[in-house]
Amino acid sequence: MDYYDSAGLSDDEVLGNEGHTPVPETVNVGGSTSYKVERELGKGGFAQVYLGRRINGQLSNGSTAVEVALKFEHQSSNGCIYGPPYEFHVYDDVSGSHGVPHVYYKGRQGDYYIMVMDMLGPSLMDVLRNNSHSMSIEMVASVAIEAISILEKIHSKGYVHGDVKPENFLLGLPGTSDEKKLFLVDFGLAVRWRNALSGLHVENDQQPYMFRGTSWYASVHAHLGGTLSRRDDLESLAYTLAFLLRGLLPWQTSLGKNKSFLMCKKKMETSPETLFCSCPVPFRKFFEYVVNLKFEEKPNYEKYISLFDGIVGPDPPPINTDGAQKLIVRKRGALSLEQDDDDAEQPKKKVPMGMPVTQWIWVYNACCPMKQIYHHDVADVRLAQLIQKGNEDGLLISSVASCSNLWTLIMDSGTGFTSQVYRVSPLSNNKDWIMEQWKNGYSISAIAGTNDGSSLIVMSKGTPYILQAIIVSEKFQFEWIDKKWKLGYNITAMATEGNKWVVVMSLGSGFSDQVLFAAAIPQSCIRYYIIF
Questions:
Q1: Catalytic residue annotation
Q2: Does a cis peptide bond (omega within 30 degrees of 0) precede residue 282?
Q3: Which of 10, 82, 291, 359 places its Cα 20 to 30 Å from the Cα of 493?
Q4: DSSP letter (8 states) at residue 507
Q5: What are 151-167's pLDDT values in tens digits?
Q6: Is 36 annotated as a binding residue?
Q7: Measured on CA atoms in the order 172, 178, 181, 182, is the torsion positive or negative?
């Protein structure tokens, strides 16, 4: 069995866990069940997966599985700086869904965050390799049918998987009733397409320096740094099917520093007829449908599944497709699915392919180098990863904000800063840290606070500031600001943290004059404040 965990990295950036303490020899679950950690099954960006053999007890749900998969992620990895990995949160919503393995336990032991999961069988990549890189058309069609139904279920939970590829599709454990079932694993790159608070589709955005996924199978939008939506999982599935059918993809030979761009360019040049040359027509039609989906458009999963029915035939398929059939029955019963012909379903305007798209790519590339990146709706668990990626691209934080306890930040290559540090915690706990950074030559360059009383404070070297002062108060401190103005200070940052105001004033800002509009804010009646 192979498990792969990209954990926020592309396939070009997969790292080992050298320098970390060894994984524990045993894993204790709930104080009553223990597993012996045996051979390694696989590893990815920051996680390792081992075979776990039950020593005693049983899981809280009554499972008595002798063998399980144990997934370890070190606490120092980028995704764990502020707590459990983001994948923990995703599995809270999708664990046990159709085609998703059960996660029986999530927790921490020693230096590692641990998940106890179903033990599964070989990946589709393993199956392909064991069959001389050949897979029957009926087998691939069965994979298509069941994979579409699995993605529909994940999408219904509000998530996009973000890393659909042969290595992440696993069959059930051989010799069990699940051996012909298909499962999708590794939710380390999953993102929400539907806002958890509003229930609305997330907004489209583009961050050209932010590629997340696996280059061979990533959608064109992913290569260009676009916000992922449901269409991207399905486009990646189309590339996966092409690989399973042919054993290679037209862009696999792209090498060098710009290989991701070259792969993207090649994908846009490759027509459906070329990608699925000598393959049954339904594969080409599926690809045409999914690449023509709009950003917010709901895919017609049932239509896509029906494309492959004629290939699989009436005999029991190589892959169990019960989940897909249940989806068809459920949707038809609820919606009375229209029986339009194929042409009626085709979008009126197809996404252009070939030379026009190549020219568009080059127009986009001519705008480089991109100087700025904007991240929004960032949870604490993703913050460190995004900042590190920006730093690696020569970008530093120029501005931060917060809404609904999620962060927004702008990273810029033209800040003029030479070095930068940041911290997330209540400001009342940060006094010593701020004082220490001031001594080290850093100045507060950006600050934001959340409704629940936490703050993101960014300090940088290379600012023009000579001296700084910061106040945290339940009342707006106009009198304090006025005194600082008279001493030559100016407001250089302002935020709210819970029910408190935060004001940063600096000497040497370069401002000649400054005014403040503070309607309905009293100038006295101070109840609580901290001055650094």
A1: 163
A2: no
A3: 82
A4: E
A5: 999 999 999 999 999 99
A6: no
A7: negative
Q: How do residues 84-118 score in pLDDT, each as one tens digit?
A: 998 999 999 998 789 999 998 999 998 999 999 99
Q: 414 near 444, Cβ under 8 Å? A: no
Cis status of the peptide bond prior to 369, with omega within 30 of 0 = yes
Helix (H, G, I), strand (E, B) or coil at 48: strand
Q: What is the pLDDT of residues 220-248, one digit of tens each?
A: 999 988 999 999 999 999 999 999 999 99
Residue with tokens 């707006």: 476
Number of CB atoms found within 10 A of residue 430's CB: 19
Q: What is the DSSP string of 297-333?
A: PPP-HHHHHHHTHHHH-SSPPSS--HHHHHHHHHHHH
**Residue showing tokens 């100038």:** 523
Residue 211 CA to residue 189 CA, distance in Å, equals 11
Q: What is the structure's pLDDT at 523?
A: 44
CA distance 412 to 393: 10
Exposed, middle or buried, 67 (CB in 10 Å: 0-12/13-18/19+)? middle
Q: Helix or strand or coil: residue 21?
A: coil
Tokens of residue 531, six digits: 């001055």
Give kind and range of the element (H or E) at residue 192. strand 191-192
For the chain, the farthest-separated pair of C-alpha atoms sits apart, in whole angstroms, at 86
Nearest to 505 by CA among 461, 462, 472: 472
Task: Give the separation between CA 31 and CA 227, rounded to whole angstroms.
Answer: 42
Number of H helices, E strands in the chain: 16, 20
The token pair that represents 388 in the structure block: 């590190």
- Transcribe 354-387 into DSSP letters: SHHHHHHHHHHHTTPSP-EEEEEEE-HHHHHHHH
Contact indicator for 50, 40 with CB cutoff of 8 Å: yes
- Would you say residue 301 has pLDDT above 90? yes
Q: Which residues pair with 37 in a beta bridge?
A: 52
